[in-house]
């Protein structure tokens, strides 16, 4: 992949960097946040220590996946960023749809294809010197899913062979533009601008689901989408409740 070509193909105005290998693109950008002067996209052709929510690892390879992080500064504090991972999911879903890959969204931060995970989103924050908040948005997108990788994961996962045939620089530029447009709109309107778009792609709308915390069921009910701050709406026997996206796992009830 070529940083100059990605930047030239993109209309975002974001600085682009490409490295052959690193541990984690998100960790690298967080370490540099205090010295950044503008948005930066960091793409790794191979990432050895990618991570997801709750410290989970993200397996990737240069042949089979696209791994990158985008550092973006917001003027407000972390409290102004409610729903940001979901907004990014909605934008990513729309961008993939335009590229010919139809996806669904799982609360709070997964992109699914045919019921299996295609991409994951991890948003991490750090206070910016002089005020504001740096957000580092890490994304791992499966392009191909060989049997041996599924065996390592211990579960089925999705691939997008159509995207794997695209020129990587063109694909990355298209995703960067979608993300930059998303973040600019989020700065102005918050998650309310994305709520309907997210609900249209909700994978488990109307399904009976359980919320797990360390393996224990903490809530059970029928998934009813999300509301305008990004909280999950769950219709339980006791009535409708809202759930924040803490360290919980959402599953369809067996």
From TrEMBL:
It is an enzyme of class 6 (ligase). Residues 1-187 form the BPL/LPL catalytic domain. This is biotin--[biotin carboxyl-carrier protein] ligase. The keyword Nucleotide-binding applies. One of its GO terms (molecular function) is biotin--[biotin carboxyl-carrier protein] ligase activity. PANTHER family: BIOTIN PROTEIN LIGASE, BIOTIN--PROTEIN LIGASE. Its EC number is 6.3.4.15. PROSITE patterns: BPL_LPL_CATALYTIC. It comes from the Bacteria. Keywords: ATP-binding, Biotin, Ligase, Nucleotide-binding. It catalyses: biotin + L-lysyl-[protein] + ATP = N(6)-biotinyl-L-lysyl-[protein] + AMP + diphosphate + H(+). Coiled coil: none annotated. It comes from Massilia agri. The keyword Phosphoprotein does not apply.
């Amino acid at each position: 992949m070529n940083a100059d070509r990605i930047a030239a193909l993109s209309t975002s105005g974001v600085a682009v960097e490409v490295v052959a290998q690193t541990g984690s693109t998100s960790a690298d950008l967080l370490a540099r946040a205090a010295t950044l002067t503008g948005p930066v996209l960091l793409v790794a052709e191979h990432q050895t220590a990618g991570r997801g929510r709750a410290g989970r690892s993200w397996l990737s390879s240069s042949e089979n996946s696209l791994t990158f992080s985008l550092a973006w500064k917001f003027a407000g504090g972390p409290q102004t960023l409610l729903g940001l991972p979901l907004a990014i999911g909605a934008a990513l879903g729309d961008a993939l749809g335009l590229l010919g890959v139809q996806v669904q969204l799982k609360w709070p931060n997964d992109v699914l294809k045919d019921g299996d995970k295609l991409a994951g989103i991890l948003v991490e924050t750090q206070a910016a010197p002089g005020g504001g908040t740096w957000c580092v948005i890490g994304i791992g997108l499966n392009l191909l899913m060989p049997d041996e990788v599924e065996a390592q994961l211990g579960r089925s996962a999705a691939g997008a062979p159509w995207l794997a045939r695209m020129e990587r620089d063109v694909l990355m530029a298209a995703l960067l533009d979608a993300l930059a447009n998303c973040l600019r709109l989020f700065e102005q309107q918050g998650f309310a601008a994305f709520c309907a778009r997210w609900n249209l792609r909700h994978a488990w709308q109307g399904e009976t689901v359980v919320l797990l915390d360390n393996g224990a069921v903490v809530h059970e009910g029928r998934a009813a989408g999300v509301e305008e701050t990004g909280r999950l709406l769950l219709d339980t026997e006791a009535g409708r409740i809202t759930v924040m996206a803490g360290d919980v796992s959402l599953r369809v009830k067996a």
